[in-house]
Amino acid sequence: MGKYSVIAEVGEALTDILKKGLVPELLPDGSQVGLCAPDERGDYVVGLYLYDIQLNDSYRVTGMQNRGLREQSFPPVDLTLSYMVIVRSASDIQHRSAAEHRMLGRIIQIFHDTNTLKAEDFGSATAPDMRIEMIHPSREEMKSIWTNEKEQFRTSLFYTVAPVEIDSERTRRVGRVTDVEIRIDE
C-alpha cells in the first residue's frame, strides 16, 4: 500500500475529513482541527490523537509480492491504527458543554458516513480499502490513554483504521522459467 509515511497520511486524511464536515457549521475554519496529544492541544478545538499501533492479524498478506519479472518483495506489514478524538470548545462556560456535544454528534455522523479511506488515494491499486470503525474501550483503558493530568478526563471518541499497509523494501531476485523441454520416452 504505502511507504512508511502512510501513518502520517492517514492522520492527515482523517483531519481533512473532519475539517470538511465541521467547517463552517460548527467551527469557523479548519485551523482548529489537527493532530495532537490530549495534553498538547494548543489552539485546536478538535484533536486527533494516535494512541496505539497494532499488528493487524485478521488481515495479513503472506507470500512474496511480484515486482516485475525478476524481482519480488517481502510481504507488507498490516497495521491497525487507534485514535482518540478530543473535543474542547472555546465557547464560554455557559454554552461549552452543548457546543462540545454538538461537535461529538457531528464527528460520529461524519465518520459513520465516511467510514472508508480508499487505498488508491494512498498510492495503492492492490491494497484493500481502510475501514474507519468506532470502538468502545473500557473506562479504565480510556483513562490510561488520557495523558493530560492537569484536566479531568472528559468524553472522547475512539476509532480504529485498518488495515493500513506499509510495504517492505526488502526484495529478492528471482529467475523465471523461460524454456520448457518435454520428452516422451516410449
What do you see in this structure?
With 186 residues, this protein is an alpha+beta fold. The protein has one domain. It is built from three helices and nine strands, in the order αβββββαββαββ. The strands form two sheets. The chain has a six-stranded mixed β-sheet, covered by helices on one side. A three-stranded antiparallel β-sheet has the order 3-4-9, with no helix packed on it. Strand 3 and strand 4 form a beta hairpin. Helix 1 crosses helix 2. The longest helix is centred in the middle third of the chain and has 21 residues.
Structural class: alpha+beta
Based on Cα principal axes, name the global outline.
elongated
Using only CA atoms, what is the Rg?
22 Å
Number of strands: 9
Range of helix content: 10-25%
Q: Can you describe this structure in just a few lines?
A:
The chain has 186 residues and is α+β, with helices and mostly antiparallel strands. Helix content is 24%, strand content 26%. The longest helix is centred in the middle third of the chain and has 21 residues, at 93-113.
Keywords:
about 190 residues, alpha+beta, 3-stranded antiparallel β-sheet, elongated
Topology:
Elements: H1 6-22, E1 33-35, E2 46-55, E3 65-66, E4 71-73, E5 77-87, H2 93-113, E6 116-117, E7 130-134, H3 139-145, E8 157-166, E9 171-173
Helix pairs in contact: 1-2
